[in-house]
UniProtKB/TrEMBL annotation, chain A:
Residue span, Aminoacyl-transfer RNA synthetases class-II family profile domain: 115-342
GO annotation, cellular component aspect: cytoplasm
Gene of this entry: pheS
Cytoplasm is among the record's keywords: yes
Keyword ATP-binding listed: yes
Organism: Candidatus Aquicultor secundus
Superkingdom classification of source: Bacteria
Reaction equation(s) it catalyzes: tRNA(Phe) + L-phenylalanine + ATP = L-phenylalanyl-tRNA(Phe) + AMP + diphosphate + H(+)
Protein name: Phenylalanine--tRNA ligase alpha subunit
Gene3D superfamilies xref list: Bira Bifunctional Protein, Domain 2 (3.30.930.10)
Entry cofactors: Mg(2+)
Binding positions (Mg(2+)): 267
UniProtKB/TrEMBL annotation, chain B:
Location within or outside the cell: Cytoplasm
Chain ranges of the B5 domain: 402-479
Protein residues bound to Mg(2+): 457, 463, 466-467
EC code: 6.1.1.20
Gene3D superfamilies: 3.30.56.10, Bira Bifunctional Protein, Domain 2, Ferrodoxin-fold anticodon-binding domain, Nucleic acid-binding proteins, Phenylalanyl-trna Synthetase, Chain B, domain 3
Major location category of this protein: cytoplasm
Cofactors, names only: Mg(2+)
Matching InterPro entries: aa-tRNA-synth_II/BPL/LPL, B3/B4_tRNA-bd, DNA-bd_dom_put_sf, Fdx_antiC-bd, Fdx_antiC-bd_sf, NA-bd_OB-fold, Phe-tRNA-ligase_IIc_bsu, Phe-tRNA-ligase_IIc_bsu_bact
Keyword terms of this UniProt record: Aminoacyl-tRNA synthetase, ATP-binding, Cytoplasm, Ligase, Magnesium, Metal-binding, Nucleotide-binding, Protein biosynthesis, RNA-binding, tRNA-binding
Catalytic activity: tRNA(Phe) + L-phenylalanine + ATP = L-phenylalanyl-tRNA(Phe) + AMP + diphosphate + H(+)
Name this protein carries in UniProt: Phenylalanine--tRNA ligase beta subunit
Signal peptide per UniProt: none
Length: 351, 802
């Protein structure tokens, strides 16, 4: 092969190559063209390989042409590549549209029971106020459930009519009679008997009373009992604590009022109302008077402190108890507390 | 208790509205349950006098009446009732009246005769249920007067909830005293002067108390020559408004005075008392008496009776006897005004199931020093309203006078409990408002307070502090927070783990349910629990509401299956739930039954519902196992395993026991087809794990493992093994043969069917090999794989698939 024919070949290869690049309709074809002309066994490469047979001058000249041809083709391929890539992205975008209104793939996720959620919400508030969570057995001795809580022997709660008994020796209560706890207050006694003040606890749990189920009663319900015993605890502290609880639980603008009441284990005792969230205390169909009764509270009766071995002249305390079902019903407008125990998934999954 | 405000006004000025009064009472401890305004809808109802009653010319059932309403003109009114005659006084609803039952009165033509109003029954006036005839009014009401005024119906009745510690409030005078203390006014008790005859009561009647522990005081008066008849309208109306039924003047007077003073009274027909004697004594065992309600009661020696010379004549403080009841022919009365020991009355009333207005007052404690006042008040009424002649003196047996209590009250104690800064003067003022007598010992700190005997509830200093707080006003006490700053709240570690397990279950798609702690003893039969199984060691309720809730549950599974059933019945087929709750069982020799907290699961229906991107898939064993693995991951338990488990509640081929180390944590699996049938539920999977054991096994200190620095080599291996060989066995072999280079092994395919010989299964594992200190060569990984293959072939007879 001589110099001239090599150069002519290169010009021809260039022409063919330019046409092939132009005709490539996708990246694959373009790559084939690159391989055909510029690859290891490509046409331009083949010419370059023959340069060794040429004399110095010829080699220099033909080499220069060959490099020009290669650069031209590389540049053509590069711009064609860019053009085709853009076209392919455009094509992909054009074909890949979806119906964004189709429902998403739902992660499987369950729901806490509303009562548990409320208990968590309430205990979290008191944890923030420095309380610990205490627990105790659901089956209790009369001693912890009644006697140590200063409940008189002839209190109506201590009858087969009002309280579920596992064991009852006679009409007269005995310390080792066994009951289903009627409140979570016996947890207070167990805690106080096991430690010295200060005591700041909250005791959530199941409680049982012998009520036939109706829209506002179930024989089992949940109660949250709170207890603070320390030096210098006052009725004012009880009010302040309950006000703080109310603000966090029901909202900043909700108020409370305390009405004197009677409980065997506290003195002074109070029923506590929260201002109605619907009418802000004006009185409406939900609340009647503008107030909703939510809990019972009071200063721990000195007899209770003496019973657990504390000295009422040295420490004082307050206690409060609330029915979780009642609070939740008020907050969510649930008309019938039996729904909490039916466990209808359409109910459970609402919350 | 029902308190008509007009009655209250006999003793105290009430210058606030009923609503305001109710609010004041609410805030001082007397809960007002309702406020009932009487006489509403009676604006155009008058008292009418029937002048004439004639038959209707064209209708047998109607009468045409002529009625005077105190004006010159009379009204013609057509009436359908038969119980009327000329001279009767009746309620007349005038044209324009809008009655409580919604009826609006207009002129009407009835069979051609025009009626200008309506004669009304009690029911039509909203005064009871009686619609049998026209309400015939008492003779002493004035014709023409508005009915509400004539009957004293322009009144408001408060319904009060009196707490058991305040028996003194169970009377009008007691409530007047309470209102006085709240509104800072003075209550006035009516003064009573009895005109007595010369005959001395103590000469004609004897009173003897044999059991002064149960009857500390018995006061009696004798009233001669009474005329038994109806009591006056005003008294009847007041009794009715207070919720009592008028009977006759004598009984009404005793009831009226009881409502007024809180002292229950009883009137005996004096001439039926054998020996004219009253003997207060314990009943004899199996003594009988017939009470006023006609029931013959068997008595025992815990009960106190009032007897005459021969027999019981009343159940003391609870109910009188028929043998000495006041009747129309009664001439002479022995009036009882006594103080009985509260607990004895309560026991008697409870053991006989007999509650009365009288017993409910005695059992809470009345004023022992109020008997004579009440007796005098009633005797005075018997003079005025029954023409009685009162014998001289009261037969008053009161062996040991009960004196007012004197209680200490320290100012600094008041303020320490309440968080107030009250001084001696203010505390004394509050005491006096409650009719207590304070004596100041030391100007700054100490006083003694004398408490009247009508307040049996006040026994200690703290009781007085409560009274001070109540009258000072709970809502006037300044709010604060406990001073102690060093308290730290929070959950214990165990509580936190329990909480995280619940959250993990929710994250695994399970919803929480709460079911009753008591259940049906037949549940264990439906669950096929064998005799003698601990699930049958029931703790039984003595007094269940019904058989279905008569034992404490020994497993949560029965209740969870009932929840599945409840939902499936309501077209909720995909139910995946858990409950955390106690189980209970009885063990000999323990003070209390045992309790253990279980976390139990039930799953049925579709794990994934039919979706546009995926076909529905039903829950299976491995969904349940996956949930349990998630819980194990949450507690980071080390060394857990499962083993075959046989329990009649579960499908024998699809049940497992969960172990952590050697300890059994619980079981899980598919419910047995028989159990499925017994509960009538679809195929379901259940688990019951011991929460406390799970928490015990929790690893709370998690270590750090270096992330591999060098790339690993992943190899897949498919083998054929006998169908009976478990995944765990294959894994054990792979792991032991793989050595330290094998970092992970995971089953990614399991296949039986076409291409796999009968009785065999194909299992494919993906294995990751790596070394911590270098890039592994292909050859090293292949060598490890080769060792694994050899061992699988040797130990399990596995064949490698191409």
């Amino acid at each position: 092969m001589n110099n001239v024919s090599s150069q002519a070949d290169l010009q021809r290869i260039l022409k063919e190559g330019e046409t092939a690049v132009l005709q490539a309709s996708n990246l694959k074809e373009l790559d084939d063209v690159r391989v055909e002309y510029l690859g290891k066994k490509g046409k331009v490469t083949a010419v370059l390989k023959t340069l060794g047979q040429l004399s110095g001058e010829e080699r220099k000249e033909t080499g220069k042409v060959a490099n020009e041809v290669r650069q031209k083709l590389e540049s053509d391929i590069a711009s064609k590549h860019e053009e085709l890539t853009r076209a392919e992205v455009a094509e992909r975008l054009a074909t890949e549209t979806i119906d964004i209104t189709l429902p998403g793939r739902e992660p499987v996720y369950g729901h806490r029971h509303l009562i548990s959620q409320a208990i968590k919400q309430i205990t979290d508030i008191f944890i923030g106020l420095g309380y610990k969570v205490a627990e105790g057995p659901e089956i209790e001795l009369d001693y912890y459930n009644f006697k140590a809580l200063n409940t008189p022997a002839d209190h109506p709660a201590r009858t087969l009519q009002d309280t579920f008994y596992i064991k009852k020796h006679s009409v007269q209560p005995a310390d080792d009679d066994i009951v289903l706890r009627t409140h979570t207050s016996p947890v207070q006694i167990r805690v106080m008997k096991s430690q010295q003040p200060p005591v700041y606890i909250i005791a959530p749990g199941r409680a049982f009373r012998r009520d036939v189920a109706d829209p506002s009663h179930t024989p089992m319900f949940h109660q949250i009992e709170g207890l603070a015993v320390d030096k210098h605890i006052t009725f004012g502290d009880l009010k302040g604590t309950l006000e703080e609880f109310t603000r966090q639980m029901f909202g900043k603008d909700r108020k409370i009022r305390l009405r004197p009441h009677f409980f065997p284990f506290t003195e002074p005792s109070a029923e506590v109302d929260v201002s109605c969230g619907i009418c802000s205390g004006m009185g409406c169909r939900l609340c009647g008077s503008g107030w909703l009764e939510v809990l019972g509270a009071g200063m721990v009766d000195p007899n209770v402190l003496i019973e657990v071995g504390y000295n009422p002249e040295e420490v004082s305390g307050f206690a409060f108890g609330m029915g979780v079902e009642r609070i939740v019903s008020l907050m969510y407008g649930i008309p019938d507390i039996r729904m909490f125990y039916e466990n209808d998934m359409r109910f459970v999954k609402q919350f | 208790m029902l308190v008509p405000i007009n009655w209250l006004k006999d003793y105290i000025d009430v210058d606030v509205s009923p609503d305001e009064l109710a609010e004041l009472l609410n805030l001082t401890g007397t809960a007002v349950e309702s406020i009932k305004t009487l006489g509403e809808g009676l604006d155009n109802v008058r008292v009418g006098l029937l002048l004439d009653v004639k038959p209707h010319p064209d209708a047998d059932k109607l009468s045409v009446t002529t009625v005077s309403i105190g004006q010159p003109e009379t009204l013609q009114i057509v009436c359908g009732a038969k119980n009327i005659k000329p001279g009767d006084k009746v309620p007349v609803a005038l044209i324009g009246a809008h009655l409580p039952n919604g009826l609006v009165i207009k002129p009407a033509k009835l069979r051609g005769v025009t009626s200008y109003g309506m004669l009304a029954s009690r029911a039509e006036l909203g005064m009871g249920a009686d619609h049998s005839g026209i309400y015939i009014l008492p003779e002493d009401v004035e014709a023409g007067k508005p009915l509400a005024e004539a009957l004293g119906l322009d009144d408001t009745v408060l319904e009060l909830e009196i707490t058991p510690n305040r028996p003194d409030c169970l009377s009008m005078i007691g409530m007047a005293r309470e209102v006085g203390a709240i509104t800072q006014r003075t209550m006035h008790k009516p003064e009573v002067t009895v005109t007595e005859s010369t005959e001395k009561a103590s000469d004609v009647a004897g009173v003897e108390i044999l059991d002064p522990d149960l009857c500390p005081r018995y006061s009696a008066r004798i009233i001669r020559n009474v005329k038994v008849g109806p009591s006056p309208t005003w008294m009847q109306e007041r009794l009715q408004k207070a919720g009592m039924r008028p009977i006759n003047n004598i009984v009404d007077i005793t009831n009226y005075v009881m409502l007024e003073t809180g002292q229950p009274l009883h009137a005996f027909d004096f001439n039926t008392l054998h020996g004219h004697k009253i003997i207060v004594r314990r009943a004899k065992n199996s003594e009988h008496m017939q009470t006023l309600d006609g029931v013959v009661r068997e008595l025992d020696d815990t009960m106190l009776v009032i007897a005459d010379a021969d027999r019981p004549v009343a159940l003391a403080g609870v109910m009188g006897g028929e043998n000495t009841e006041v009747s129309d022919g009664t001439k002479d009365i022995l009036l009882e005004s006594a103080y009985f020991e509260p607990t004895s009355i309560m026991r008697t009333s409870r053991s006989l199931g007999l509650l009365s207005e009288s017993s409910s007052r005695f059992e809470k404690g009345i004023d022992p020093n109020g008997t004579v006042y009440a007796a005098d008040r009633a005797a005075r009424f018997m003079e005025e309203l029954a023409d009685g002649i009162v014998n001289k003196g009261v037969v008053d047996v009161y062996p040991r006078v009960i004196l007012p209590k004197r209680l200490p009250l320290r100012t600094d104690r008041v303020n320490a409990i309440l968080g107030t800064k009250l001084g001696v003067d203010e505390i004394s003022r509050i005491c006096r408002r409650l009719e207590f007598t304070p004596e100041v010992i030391d100007r700054t700190t100490e006083m003694w307070v004398s408490v009247p005997t009508f307040r049996p509830d006040l026994e200690r200093e703290i009781d007085l502090i409560e009274e001070v707080a109540r009258i000072y006003g709970y809502n006037n006490i300044r709010s604060s927070l406990p001073e102690s700053g060093d308290k730290q709240g929070g959950l214990s570690l165990r509580q936190k783990i329990a909480e995280s397990i619940k959250l993990r279950l929710v994250a695994a798609g399970l919803s929480e349910v709460i079911t009753y702690s008591f259940t049906d003893p037949h549940d264990v039969d439906k669950l096929q629990v064998p005799e003698g199984d601990p699930m049958r060691w029931f703790v039984r309720l003595m007094n269940p509401l019904s058989e279905e809730v008569s034992v404490m549950r020994t497993t949560l599974i029965g209740n969870l299956l009932k929840v599945l059933k409840y939902n499936v019945n309501r077209e909720q087929y995909d139910v995946q739930i858990y409950e955390v709750g106690h189980i209970f069982w009885h063990e000999q020799g323990k003070e209390l039954p045992d309790e253990e907290t279980m976390v139990s699961i039930a799953m049925t229906g579709a794990r994934i519902p039919d979706e546009w991107y995926e076909k529905a898939r039903s829950v299976d064993f491995f969904d349940l196992k996956g949930v349990i693995e998630a819980v194990l991951d949450e507690v980071d338990a080390e060394g857990w395993s499962v083993r075959q488990f046989t329990h009649p509640v579960l499908h024998p081929g699809r049940s497992a026991e969960l172990l952590i180390g050697d300890e059994s944590i619980g079981f899980f699996g598919e419910i047995h087809p028989e159990v499925q049938a017994a509960y009538d539920v679809p195929r379901a999977y259940v688990a019951e794990l011991n929460l406390n054991k799970l928490i015990d096994k929790a690893n709370t200190v998690k270590g750090f493992t270096e992330i591999p620095k060098y790339p690993g080599i992943s190899l897949d291996l498919a083998i054929l093994v006998d169908g009976s060989i478990s995944n765990d066995r294959v894994l054990d072999v792979i792991k032991s043969a793989g050595g330290s280079l094998l970092k992970q092994v995971r089953l990614f395919d399991l296949y039986t069917g076409k291409g796999v010989p009968e009785g065999k299964k194909s299992m494919a594992y993906s294995m990751l090999f790596s070394a911590p200190d270098r890039t592994l060569t292909d050859q090293e990984a292949l060598d490890a794989q080769e060792r694994i293959i050899r061992k699988l072939e040797k130990e399990l007879g596995a064949q490698v698939r191409a």
